[in-house]
Design a protein that fits this description.
Number of helices: 11
Shape: elongated
Distance between the termini: 66 Å
Helix content: over 70%
Oligomer: single chain
Largest sheet: 2 strands, antiparallel
Order of helices and strands: HHHEEHHHHHHHH
Length: 378
């Protein structure tokens, strides 16, 4: 079935760009499913190996060799390592074959993949976000690589034996050239999934929004064009969109909570170090850059999530306008059922709906904690 937009383009003899079938299947999704909780024994073993590699990278700050070769433990670094393990574990437990199958079933139940504008909306936004993710991780690796090489060259090894220096260099390059790329790839997989799922939910809500706008426009020209079948059809798909968003929320809700927690920990650490520690300029700017990178990434992901709620609210506002266009009791009853639907959106750790208003309050609370906590921690 061709959409009306496609038919209009055919009439104008315009060449349509081909967009493939909408799907969340990708290399990154497959990789995450390989190491998910529903994978086979080899996948679970691979997950354990990847977690060891992730912790090797994060534990560089946890364990360090002093001049007398005694290992010392930093409590703050241990806390960071603990937080860094949360998100991969959440993805391992929640993002599995069963969840992906249920999401695909909910999406296929909508039966809107035939629409050209729907495919265009999904793939154009997915492409934009994907390139943004690719660029950010490439730039991040180059930045971390350059900083690590600088710290290695700037390190005073005059009091160490050549054997110790050789071992340290081997460990350093093993972490930098092997473990760090693997770590960034796993994080990149999770970031792409963080983007794909909200865009899929956005696409479902966007389809309903377009249909409602068209219905409102037609009713403005002719009130008789407003029929109950059209309202019922859109309301039914809106209900299916709610179920799709709720299913995606099973992975997005805890993921958003841990992402904000990770940013809070980094921001508090940055604030504490800037206030109480003397650092060289490069280390200081490196920490500022990394915290800023986490913040920007968090805002990008959050924006993609909040758009779902905004579009659903816009849809309900149009439905309310449609109620003013008719005096039919059957239509008004159908519209009232539409307006009684729950809000669509993702929750923050299952505690509250993440909206523009709640996000501003959350950021205010986080800012207060970031400013105040280092003072009490001293």
């Amino acid at each position: 079935m061709a959409s009306i937009n496609m038919q209009q383009c055919f009439v104008r003899n315009e060449e349509l760009k081909h967009y493939p079938k909408i799907s969340i299947d990708s290399i990154f999704s497959r990789m995450q499913l390989i190491i998910s909780s529903t994978s086979n024994i080899y996948g679970k073993c691979l997950f354990v190996i990847i977690m060891l590699i992730l912790n090797l990278v994060h534990c560089r700050a946890l364990l360090f060799i002093s001049l007398d070769s005694i290992f010392s433990i930093k409590l703050g670094a241990f806390f960071f390592v603990l937080i860094a393990n949360w998100l991969p574990i959440v993805f391992h437990l929640r993002y599995n074959h069963k969840l992906v199958k249920q999401i695909e079933d909910h999406w296929n139940g909508l039966q809107i993949d035939y629409d050209y504008e729907t495919r265009k909306y999904f793939w154009t936004r997915k492409a934009i976000y994907r390139w943004l993710v690719y660029f950010s991780y490439i730039f991040l690796y180059i930045f971390k690589y350059s900083y690590s090489l600088y710290t290695l060259s700037d390190k005073d090894t005059s009091k160490l034996s050549s054997e110790v220096v050789l071992k340290q260099n081997i460990i350093f390059y093993f972490l930098l050239l092997i473990c760090t790329p693997i770590t960034l790839f796993i994080h990149c997989c999770q970031s792409c999934i963080h983007i794909d799922l909200p865009i899929l939910a956005q696409t479902a809500v966007q389809y309903n929004l377009i249909k409602l706008k068209k219905l409102l426009k037609e009713s403005g020209k002719d009130e008789k064009s407003l029929n109950i079948n059209a309202i019922q059809n859109i309301r039914y798909r809106y209900l299916l969109s709610c179920r799709l968003v709720d299913k995606i929320n099973e992975i997005m809700s805890p993921a958003l909570f841990f992402m904000f927690t990770y940013f809070l920990a980094n921001a508090c650490n940055l604030s504490y170090s800037l206030i109480y520690y003397e650092q060289n300029h490069l280390t200081k700017w490196y920490n500022i850059f990394m915290t800023s990178f986490i913040l920007i990434s968090l805002l990008v992901y959050t924006h993609a999530n909040i758009k779902i709620h905004e579009k659903s609210q816009e849809s309900l506002a149009i439905v309310y306008k449609l109620s003013l266009k008719t005096n039919s009791m059957r239509l008004l009853n159908e519209i009232s059922l539409f307006l009684n639907h729950n809000e669509i959106g993702f929750t923050f750790g299952g505690m509250f709906m993440l909206t523009t208003s709640s996000l501003s309050k959350l950021l205010s609370i986080l800012t207060t904690i970031i400013v105040a906590l280092p003072t009490f921690a001293k």
